[in-house]
Amino acid sequence: MAAAQHSALVLLADGTEEIEFTTSYEYVLLLVGATPIWQYEPRLIWSSQSILIRAGWNVKSVGVKLANPFFAQCSRNVRILPDFPSPHEIPDRFLDAASVLVIPGGAPGAKTFCKSDDVLRLIREFRNDGKYVALICAGTTALVESIKAPEAEGEATKKCKVTSHPSVKQEIVDAGWTYADDKERVVVDGKVITSRGPGTAILFALTIVEMLAGKEKAEELRGPMICAETI
Fold first, then answer.
1. Which of 29, 115, 127, 140 is the most buried (most CB within 10 A)?
2. Each residue of 156-191: pLDDT tens digit?
């Protein structure tokens, strides 16, 4: 019997860090120049680090509070088109089937996630439904913010051991979360996966695969990518 296909929802905002996004996603449509959106001829850029797609998963991105509904202007000015322009556009059937919510970093994007009621609600819903939530870099701050709402309850109120980009470490520690040793590049505590930054993005994505599909599947992906045991 064939293994069940996993689905992943990856968040995207203006200021999202490109490497952290594309490592968990198959491709981006890169738009360059100042041409009006209807005149663009997007170039399809296949990410060599497209780990969740390489695993055979159904991966979709969702825009959060985008200044232009057609694309996100990322941290290094790469423009990425989301599959769903906003959280309200996510089909219920996909949301119900999604196995993991992935939240990339990039300081401006992370701040947007922290201020989005839709994002904070998604984090709480995934945690209370027993699904995985994976956050990298400054994205971890959205997890911290998610438990502050009066409506937070159940599993979604629990603090756990995490890591993040060093720039937001003190903010997380001050909020009362257990912060991992800086040498830990990816941290798994229950169904919360966190990591540190662009340089740990491949290991982060491989860990997501391992947690949901097993170590054998993660190793199957690691080999062809010529990926070291630790990155």
1. 140
2. 999 999 999 999 999 999 999 999 999 999 999 999
Residue 92 three-state SS: helix
Q: Give the pLDDT band of residue 27 (cuts 50, 70, 90).
A: very low
| Residue 188 within a domain | yes
What's the burial of 51, exposed, middle or buried (CB within 10 Å: 0-12/13-18/19+)?
Answer: buried
The CATH number linked to 118 is: 3.40.50.880
Which single residue is written with the structure tokens 């360059």?
32
Which residues carry out catalysis? 137
Read off the pLDDT of residues 143-162 as tens digits, 9 standing for 90 and up. Answer: 999 999 999 999 999 999 99
171-174 CB contacts, 8 Å cutoff, 24+ apart = 171/141, 171/144, 172/140, 172/141, 172/144
C-alpha distances out from residue 73 to 36, 55, 97, Å: 14, 27, 28
Asked if residue 229 belongs to a domain, the reply is no
The CB-side HSE value for 134 (13 A sphere, CA atoms) comes to 30
